[in-house]
Amino acid sequence: MRFPGCPLPKRLKAARERAGLSQKGLGVLAGIDEFVASPRINQYERGVHAPGYEMAQRLAHKLNVPTAYLYADSDAEAELLLAFRELTERERSRILRTLREGR
Question: Which of these CATH numbers, 1.10.260.40, 3.40.50.2300, 3.40.50.10380, 1.10.357.10, describes 8-101?
């Protein structure tokens, strides 16, 4: 089964490559048996299978990205999620306050 239009395959691969991990390495870190880790991540990245939400959370955690990043519909939204994650709590609060006041 393919998941057309789902952004997860593209985002997962991009995050894995940015982290410098192999498919097997990421799979093992996320708790997948080492003998099936590479094929499983490969299937996720090709959109053949989609991970359940719990697995997506584990993958995101190991890749140091927000889980929402894996599901972001646009590149701009994905980039914003990554940038927001890098901010301190104080900076996040300031930006949120500014956005709320700008409405």
Answer: 1.10.260.40
